[in-house]
Amino acid sequence: MSGFLDGIRCGDCECNVDWGEKRNTIASIAAGVLFFTGWWIIIDAAIMYPREDQFHHAYHTCGVIATIAFLMINAVSNGQVRGDSYSEGCMGQTGARVWLFIGFMLAFGSLIASMWILFGGFVVASKETVYPGIAVFFQNAFIFFGGLVFKFGRTEDLWQ
Amino acid sequence: MAGIKALVGLSFSGALGLTFLLLGCALEQFGVYWPLFVLIFYILSPLPHFIACRCGDDTDSSSNACRELALFLTTGIVISAFGLPIILARKAVIYWGACGLVMAGNAVIFLTILGFFLIFGGGDDFSWEQW
């Protein structure tokens, strides 16, 4: 019984973690957390306020467009846009740029639309519960930032 | 074989997590079985990683888009497993105590699954013949 704590070492963890190569992992996880938290916020709002007059169901479109924008932005790699990837892809470099442009436009558009919905549809209209509007805004904000983190948080060339 | 002790430890924590989940449903003051739906998320959570491993690493660098997509989807499944009990509790379908027990069970089970991958599944020598 004596000396049974002798075997425990503190601070001996050889945490030679190479943060450089963990960057992609952390970015992917952070993007996943943001994106799916956004969707669960709107699911929560839809469940708490199921009536049309509390939460007009057409407002869901905003989040759907934001998700499509997320998919479009992350479907092309930075290498294809720069033109230095091995394969040409479906549409070539110009096509990749147009695709990315449209994706970002949809992303910014849905973010702006969510703010419009919050202020125009809930705050100015003086609805008794503003929470659905806030939920739409936060859903789109989270999806937008999740898309940005997934796109720009990961690096494609790890041999520098 | 990475050790019998690790396997036994992981199976214990798995059983503990499932116990928390079932307590959240079956205790007398709760008695509602809706939280069992998080079992779907438990089963789905390792799948993106398996699919990414099977679709293969095209380069031997660490930046593998397939793997990162799998990590993204796995994170989403984990978030969903925590989100479902919270939403059920907010709508008063289950009690908040049950929600807390289910979330504790989630945490233990996902740590178990993570432990499985770190101890048994990691590395390039992962092969199906291991079993």
From TrEMBL, chain A:
Superkingdom of this protein's organism: Eukaryota
Signal peptide region: none
Transmembrane recorded as keyword: yes
Main location, first listed in the record: membrane
Pfam families for this protein: UPF0220
Location of this chain's protein in the cell: Membrane
Membrane topology term: Multi-pass membrane protein
Sorted UniProt keywords: Membrane, Transmembrane, Transmembrane helix
TM stretches of this protein: 26-49, 55-77, 98-124, 130-150
InterPro entries: UPF0220 (IPR007919)
Keyword Membrane: yes
Cellular component GO terms, alphabetical: membrane
Family per record: Belongs to the UPF0220 family.
PANTHER family documented for this protein: SMALL MEMBRANE PROTEIN-RELATED (PTHR13180)
Protein name: Transmembrane protein 50A
UniProtKB/TrEMBL annotation, chain B:
Keyword Ribonucleoprotein belongs to the record: no
GO BP annotations listed: late endosome to vacuole transport via multivesicular body sorting pathway; negative regulation of growth hormone receptor signaling pathway
One Pfam family in the UniProt entry: Vps55
Matches recorded under PROSITE patterns: PROKAR_LIPOPROTEIN
Keywords per UniProt: Endosome, Golgi apparatus, Membrane, Transmembrane, Transmembrane helix
Transmembrane segments: 36-57, 69-88, 94-120
An example Gene Ontology CC term for this record: Golgi membrane
Protein topology in the membrane: Multi-pass membrane protein
Keyword Transit peptide carried by entry: no
InterPro entries the UniProt entry points to: Vps55/LEPROT (IPR007262)
Localisation per UniProt entry: Endosome membrane; Golgi apparatus membrane
Family recorded in the similarity comment: Belongs to the OB-RGRP/VPS55 family.
Name of the protein this chain belongs to: Leptin receptor gene-related protein
Organism from which the protein derives: Pygocentrus nattereri
Phylogenetic classification of the source organism: Eukaryota, Metazoa, Chordata, Craniata, Vertebrata
